Amino acid sequence: MRTYDKSQKLNNVCYEIRGPVTQEAARMEQAGQQVLKLNIGNPAPFGFSCPPDILQAMQEGLRLGQGYTDSKGLPAARAAVAGYCKHKGIAGVTMEDVYIGNGVSELILMSMQALLDSGDEILIPAPDYPLWTAAATLAGGRAVHYLCDEASGWLPDTQDIRRKITPRTKGIVLINPNNPTGALYPSGLLQDIAAIAREKGLILFSDEIYDRLVMDGLKHTSIAALAPEVFCVTFGGLSKSHRVAGFRCGWMCLSGDRSGMGGYIDGLNLLSSMRLCAGVPAQYMVEKALSNPDQPDPDLLPGGRIYEQRACVVQALRAIPGVSVVQPQAAFYIFPRLDGRFNIQDDERFALDLLREKQVLIVAGSGFNWPDADHFRIVYLPECDVLRQGVEKIGDFLQGYRQ
Ligand code: PLP
């Protein structure tokens, strides 16, 4: 019989967040076990819901948005994103520079497909949100990882960025605020990275999907606002900030010096037109969702769920001997470190062993292209008591665990 393997294009493409350990969790659930899922940043199942006015806009979109839109998206949605860019200090973005997608995910894939030829390199953080590495690899490029430094609060190591630039490097990816570390990047660091991009003629790709999920009175800065002359592609969306991950709505916008970028922009336009357009009803949410950009999100203020859950998870993790954490400043992820006593050689096996023994699902650090087997990611969206129980189980498990 003829057999079919996956295409060779997929040989080095990994996406562990929904990988084999998650499939094992699904199998356990089907067999009647209860699994505590701390693996996916999906707010709605944890009781976070979309603001009613946004939901209403989506409902109107069901009536109004039955046909295709322009490939780049509904004019009103694109104009709203251009206005949001202006509000964030990103100069010169018009609606022609804005592309609406079925989530940021689709646009990440598109941005890499349109750019990379075989052997082209793109600098991506380690740890990263692994779709970036997967998208660059699928596009035929080479993901080159620069280190983020845990000792400095998980900030990108600019020396490492410089060291890893070669004549094949085409761009630098930033994830700010960061998934999986929850780090928020200060302006000085962004200026340093922008200076590198300017000097070397590189494109900046900035994934800012968590820009409104910032705590402690800190403010998010878009690198594009600090680098008006560097060609930047900035990504944002409603999945996290407006708790509508299921509706699939994100955008990317182009800013900075477009000279020399005509071919790349043609490529983006071609790919955008090939998928016809993003889902239209969801696009009707954008204008409303961006109408009040400075309104604080109560879940991120003291007393709010995400803020308090961060405190719970940090405290519970720090109580485990051999575990340390950098307190996140944004988003809803934490990336704890396991010290040498556990002697973990294979962190995916660690995640699987934990799942089987304690029914707690986390994602191993290697799933985020972290080079050592000594970290894992927790999504701290569940309520405090659930988080405490989950982390206690991790602590119990670790006490006896050696590889
Ligand atoms: N970028 C980052 C950093 C993410 O964490 C995620 C989802 O977890 C995405 C992009 C994809 O988001 P979307 O739902 O808009 O596709």
Automatic annotation (TrEMBL):
Domain Aminotransferase class I/classII large: 34-382
Record bears the keyword Transferase: yes
Gene3D superfamilies (alphabetical): Aspartate Aminotransferase, domain 1, Type I PLP-dependent aspartate aminotransferase-like (Major domain)
InterPro entries tied to this protein: Ala_Aminotransferase, Aminotransferase_I/II_large, PyrdxlP-dep_Trfase, PyrdxlP-dep_Trfase_major, PyrdxlP-dep_Trfase_small
Record key words, sorted: Aminotransferase, Pyridoxal phosphate, Transferase
Molecular functions (GO terms): L-alanine:2-oxoglutarate aminotransferase activity; pyridoxal phosphate binding
EC number: 2.6.1.2
Cofactors demanded by this protein: pyridoxal 5'-phosphate
Enzyme class: transferase
Family note: Belongs to the class-I pyridoxal-phosphate-dependent aminotransferase family.
Protein name (database record): alanine transaminase
Organism, scientific name: Luoshenia tenuis
